[in-house]
């Protein structure tokens, strides 16, 4: 319901990206890896269009990495993790990724 409202009010906003990210976490937790990846990719597209170096973009990249790792694609997971760490480093966070958001629903 929240996603429907966010898409109706502000289809390309940080709030919509966050709603998609949260829904993707639910899919990830339930083991629907393809659904999670699809939603994370939508969230990433929106988050990057709003602010490519935002904490929301880092969060989605980190979660997308976790989803790909759960699918068994370590190479793609590492690419997304690196992108998240690079943004964090540019923003003044830890270059080793220790300041990245918590991956709450990682199985």
Number of strands: 0
Please report the number of helical segments: 5
Structural class: mainly alpha
Q: Which ranges are low-confidence, i.e. pLDDT below 50, for 5 or more consecutive residues?
A: 95-107
Main β-sheet: number of strands, strand sense, barrel status? none
Mean pLDDT: 84
Q: State the order of secondary-structure elements, H for helix, E for strand.
A: HHHHH
Outline type: flat
What is Rg? 13 Å
What percentage of the residues does DSSP assign to strands (E)? under 5%
CA distance, first residue to last residue = 25 Å
Helix content: over 70%
Give the topology, please.
Blueprint: H1 2-9, H2 14-29, H3 33-50, H4 55-70, H5 74-90
Task: Characterize the structure shown.
- The chain has 107 residues and is mostly helical.
- The chain is built from five helices and no strands.
- It has helices at residues 2-9, 14-29, 33-50, 55-70, 74-90.
- It is flat.
- The protein starts with a helix and ends in a 17-residue tail after the last helix.
- The model is unreliable at 95-107 (pLDDT under 50).
Concise synopsis of the structure shown:
The protein is mainly α and about 110 residues long.
Features:
107 residues; disordered C terminus; 0% strand; mainly alpha
């Amino acid at each position: 319901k929240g996603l429907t409202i966010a898409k109706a009010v502000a289809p390309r906003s940080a709030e919509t990206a966050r709603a998609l990210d949260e829904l993707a976490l639910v899919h990830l937790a339930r083991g629907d890896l393809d659904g999670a990846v699809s939603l994370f990719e939508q969230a990433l597209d929106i988050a990057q269009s709003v602010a490519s170096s935002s904490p929301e973009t880092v969060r989605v990249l980190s979660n997308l990495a976790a989803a790909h790792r759960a699918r068994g694609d370590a190479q793609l997971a590492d690419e997304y993790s690196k992108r998240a760490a690079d943004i964090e480093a540019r923003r003044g966070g830890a270059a080793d990724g220790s300041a990245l958001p918590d991956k709450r629903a990682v199985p």
